[in-house]
Batch of 4 targets.
Target 1
Amino acid sequence: MKNLPQFLILLLLPLLQVHAQKKEIGKTLAVWEINNGSIKLDKGTVEDNKAKVYWEYMKKVLPNEFLAQYVVAFRLYTDGKEEDLGGMNPLDESNKNWQIELDYIDNDLTSNDPSMLEDMDHTIIHEFGHLLSLNIQQVEPTEDKYQDDERGYLTTEGYAKKDSYLGLYVAEFWKGDLLLEWDEIAMKGSRRRQKFLLGFYDNYQDQFINDYAVESPEEDFAESWSYFILNEKNEATSIKDKKINFFYQFPDLVAYRTEMRQHLKSLNMDD
Ligand SMILES: [Zn+2]
């Protein structure tokens, strides 16, 4: 996705979705139960074998304690090539039980194309970014339909706590008018929304890592998080660089980065 030329990305923007979606997308191959970080494989089917390979790969890359604590299900699905690449969804209002999802055509572990694996790494790290920022420790469930500014930023899962990663991120990078402007666009019907989002991205290109990041503060966060994990540290000269460097202030996230980069390196050496 990140390797596509810019004009193509703009054309494909409405189709490229990897966000925390509520509604089930694509055709399900199967869903597996995850218990304390282990996948339940009892059917011995071709699908089971496939799921095992994906799950082991994700366990090698992503912090295992999060997977054990929150992830209770894994879904393989496809909506065809591109469009939706993956998802991370809470299964109930508690924000304690999550389902990770991968499109098995966009994330093909049997492919010999190295960019396929790079894209999959980006996708699973992006999805993990949603779990990191929207789990019950970070977000307070609420009945509120509209944001009460006193309580902070309202996500689909509830209010991002003020000292949460996302709460701090939004307070720093989505100040006042920017969030209001985005919010007005977000409330439009889907076709008009995409058109206005492209305009929003054009106006604020210096602030967003890519055009997908304007989808929402949550997507912006997950993209910056992915760049933080996958790229070398740079001096922050622009706002978009500052968004990537935002994560360096948290020693636990820096430790995850070091660990994840080591795992990615050893996986690449296995090839
Ligand atoms: Zn996302």
Note: The mean pLDDT is 90.
Target 2
Amino acid sequence: MIWILRRGTTADLRLSAGPRRREGTVCVPETVESLDDVLPAARDLSDLLADHVTDAAERAGTPVSCTKGCGACCRQLVPLLPVEARHLSAVVDDLPEHRRAVVRGRARAVVEALDGAGLLASVRQVGELDSRERRELGASYFELGLSCPFLEDEACSIHADRPLKCRDYLVINDPMHCREPLGGGVVGVALRGHSWAALRELASVFGADEKRVVPLVLAVAEAESWHPAPKAADATAPGQDVLARLLAATVEADRTEHVDEQSGANNHQ
Ligand code: SF4
């Protein structure tokens, strides 16, 4: 059961899996000027949903097997939205100089390897591929065994800032299967909502360009080209509307109770 109480630009969430309960609050500014203002709420939502499904999996006797030190999945092609690319660019900029050089160097090496394998053009266009083409590209990418530039000792070195897709990816299988994901042994856990897709849906408010798909490795290799989002006055939106849309688009409607404190509306969906 997921219970949501929204008060303007703030929402309290309670997620129950049997006796286990997770609680959290997500909020956005009064006036949203770009998706950058929404990303923290999307990440908080994603983490709550991931914790909730982790509780549910454990209760069902099939605990999530993802753990620090297993970075097998960190050789996959990770899709970002431009808002996430900008955030990661800022994260890389904030690294100490030698770390920044190492991370960018790794990313450029991955880009060179992709170029050498004839995959770079497809990777750049991943957002325009159909689902079959994306699957095939994902398999070819993984087969190259290219580590994410943020992977250190098989652990994510930017855990708190990791992309939404990384937050959502949870499995219950033996980790050995994650090293051979095409072998059919990977069993993912279905979250009760996906904030990446919800954020992409919201992106149309701020311009079609915000819906582009940016591969993580390109965002890091070309981090200098990612700048803060333009703050166009005509692209602002009331925070309470944005939060309502984000929640509705993120959290699965079934078994979710929404309460809007301002309107008094209470709808079981
Ligand atoms: S950002 Fe972190 S979690 Fe995501 S692929 Fe890279 S190392 Fe793995």
Note: The two ends are 11 Å apart (CA to CA).
Target 3
Amino acid sequence: MNLMSTVGTNTGVRSQAEGPTAAVSANSVAGTVKRKPFLLRPAAKVLLFALCLLPFWWLFYGAWANTLGPNPAEALIRASGDWTLRFLCITLAVSPLRQWANLPALARFRRMLGLFTFFYLLLHFLSYSWLDQGFNIDAIVKDIIKRPFILVGTAGLLLMALLAVTSFNRAIKAMGAARWQMLHRAIYAIALLGLLHFFWMRAAKNDFAEVAVYAVVIAVLLGWRMKRALAKRGAGTAI
Ligand code: HEM
């Protein structure tokens, strides 16, 4: 899976459907002024951007108005962790949804969703570093070594940072599409690390209901990707 992909289909979508030539020729053939589908319009990206920021504003308002409950620090750390996992799942769902609904234009939104995953993960890490550890680097390092679930989460954070800094077109050009795509498959490893982090944390409380829901969602998304990879390999050997 290509987290913040603009390689391949993304570029294709833009050149085939977004290009001015395509719009002009479609109009002249039909003899009427045809409007671009909403998903291909800049407004769609603006709308998605605003939607992705809603959880942030909700948390920000909650912290400001003191409506996050009796333990606002814990609520903020947990809610930002939940949103990280949700955005990870949404990002992983783009490709299957694109294929299933036959909407190639969805690829345009993958990079933004991936970057929002990183945004909420940074918020999660910063809330923890500030509200749990008082920005004490020594304490943070000791905690990472001491608590396995924090160590696993940190591995996810480091991998995610690598994907975020290489998510831009210049990095794709510098690395080459094949190497870039290979690196960006790490999104699956990040999803599994995030899930393990969540599982480990909830194991201490013997509370697995929510973890099970995320595990099913991630298993379905990973299963889809593996099935597609196997089908591609099969087609390759048949030729
Ligand atoms: C891919 C990376 C990560 C994901 C997906 C993730 C996700 C989550 C989730 C879903 C929760 C549970 C929220 C709940 O109970 O509703 C959580 C809790 C937590 N996470 Fe993360 N996390 C990640 C990385 C990190 C990192 C890097 C740190 C710190 C170094 C961290 C520290 C914590 C802490 C302290 C809690 C709360 C524990 C508690 O309240 O007992 N997480 N995280």
Note: The CA atoms of residues 133 and 139 lie 6 Å apart.
Target 4
Amino acid sequence: MKKVLLFNPRSAEHKWRIPNSVLQVAASIERQFEWVIVDANRETDPWNTIDRYLSTGEFAYFGSTVMPGPQLKQAIPFSRQVRKEYPSVHIIWGGYFPSNQYKVCLESGFVDVVINGPGDKCFPELLTRWEQNNLDWEDIPNLVYHSEGKMVTTRKDEIYDQDTLPALPFDKLERFYSLEKYFGKTYLGRKTIAYHSSFGCPFTCSFCAVVPIYNARWKGKSAGLIYEDIRYLREKYNADAIEFHDNNFFVSEKRTAEFSRLVMNDGMTWWGEGRIDTIDKYSDETLALMRKAGCRMIFFGAETGDDARLKKMDKGGTQTGKQILEFAARMKKFDIIPEYSFVLGTPGSDEEETWKQIRDDIAFIRKVKEINPDTEIIIYIYSPVPTEGSELFEKVKASGFSFPKKLEDWISPQWEKFDLRKNPLTPWLTAPMVNYIRNFETVLNGYHPTVSDIRLSPAKRKLMRVLSAFRYRNSIVARPYEIKLLQKIWKYRQPETEGF
Ligand code: B12
Ligand code: SF4
């Protein structure tokens, strides 16, 4: 049997997290294939390590996970290099970028197969057939590849019962990289675990990359199994905090309450992502229980305070502007910090309406801050994802927007900004609009610096707040150079780009 190299391209400058994507893929082939992981976050020269492995001639498969943005900057050149120097090695990409943009990946000439969604069952099956020189893959789910000049997209499998999947091989990862260094110091604790406990999401927001892959389905690991992993990592490595990386950790109140009861006496602080309308249905008892069990902050997609636009975004559920405000107050009562993310810059019917939407959203964010000043605000600029058929995406296409036609174009500076949702190349957003949003964000971050930047001392926070007070209170946001300068000197961290 040939070996498999699993590559995690660099995704963060600091605070490496357990590379859960490739670790879960490794678990899926553990019994049949020998594998190694190259985590570029932990390498000074990742190509050198890849080359060292491949030059042994023992490897026939190079599997890379790819998120949009910075991971592409290594996934593209390294995959191209593998093809050039080791043409017999098969190249497989998985993760959110190739699942949503498979066409451009396959047309690159160096990606042989895209794993379209979870790889837990299709990847071992694909490798087994490849080993047997059997290229008949049409019945393997979750694949996209070229066959006889045509693109083949195989059927999507259901989301698997998470409790039946093999356990993550933490001990084997330790052979490549010391796990200690994966438990970074964050706002939540001295040693923070990154854990992923469910797949998909039951909703269909029209701007969200999870939707085309999971089509409103969700399945989570049971509370008991999550707790087993957490306890193992706590006992072995003294971890004291958890970032749940699920798209929607809180879908089931029962599971959340059960996990809270299990973790209650372990002194863990934790964070996860959820929906306002879902958690607003939680009882007061569950919310109190969660807080007591260490739930310190929850990330919510608030998106906008405008009910008509919430509807257009297919936000689903029952979220309204009024509820967003009331819920911020409710969270205050339970001492759980709501981290609200807003998506600004969705297309209006004309320039005037787009401007109005941006101004309304900013006014709404200020209102949220008045109601609960502890609310953390994350601002994204709308970057379309191909949610075919949604009203929003139809509008986007009608505006003349299209994704890059060549894979390499995704790593041009403009498209990188698009991925980071900082300055997208959407035809309806003018430069003054983007500047206005960015400048407001700078002033807001100056007046209300995030609590998650733990390097920012109380004195620095105070200085930044004093410096920004006049601008924030009087809504003067143009050219906030003095605040930008301080943020640059102090390397102010935005949790949306690098995590906590
Ligand atoms: C952790 C994470 C990060 C971390 C990375 C941490 C680190 N140090 O490595 C940080 C915070 C840096 C980050 C940043 C960004 N992220 Co991010 N991130 C995630 C998150 C929360 C978890 C990823 C994960 O570990 N999943 C767990 C694994 C087990 O699941 P999986 O990756 O889906 O893997 C399965 C399959 O996809 C497949 N698979 C995946 N890879 C491979 C590879 C092979 C070979 C095979 C066979 C199969 C396979 O099989 C796996 C097992 O079934 C996801 C959301 C999510 N829930 O997945 C977002 C997510 C991937 N990120 C996203 C984005 C957009 C970003 C950013 C680009 C932008 C932003 N502003 O957020 C930045 C980029 C910055 C950067 N520096 O790269 C989006 C992608 C959306 C899209 N349009 O495609 C997601 C989906 C969040 C979202 N809902 O919007 N991110
Ligand atoms: S609730 Fe969140 S994860 Fe679910 S579809 Fe909407 S934005 Fe995506």
Note: Residues 3-153 form a domain with the Rossmann fold fold (CATH 3.40.50.2300).
